[in-house]
Amino acid sequence: MLLVESEHDKIVPHPVLGNYRNACIDALSVTYRKILLADHALSEERSRSSYISILVHWLEEMMLGARGHLRSKTSMVPDSAGPIHSSSRPKPGA
């Protein structure tokens, strides 16, 4: 599961994302990303680029990583991406 939070989201507050993360304790994997300085609508181009980058690379990790064909992390984030805070929590024992 991928959870993406906008740092300055006034529609979906930070505690809601925490509740989602806590509710997904049985998920095989939970990936959390926060787009710094972004609002809910991703009004800035930099925020939209960051979101697209997060989504594409997460999908790639889920699809190719499961097959052992993942690109190196140094080639994954384009220069246009804005600042991103991230954490991943694999399911224990997975």
TrEMBL record:
Alphabetically ordered keywords of this record: Hydrolase
Q: Where is the composition biased (Polar residues)?
A: 85-94
Q: Give GO terms: molecular function aspect only.
A: hydrolase activity
Q: Does the keyword Hydrolase apply?
A: yes
Span list, region Disordered: 73-94
Q: What is this protein called?
A: Alpha/beta hydrolase fold protein
Organism from which the protein derives = Rhodanobacter fulvus Jip2
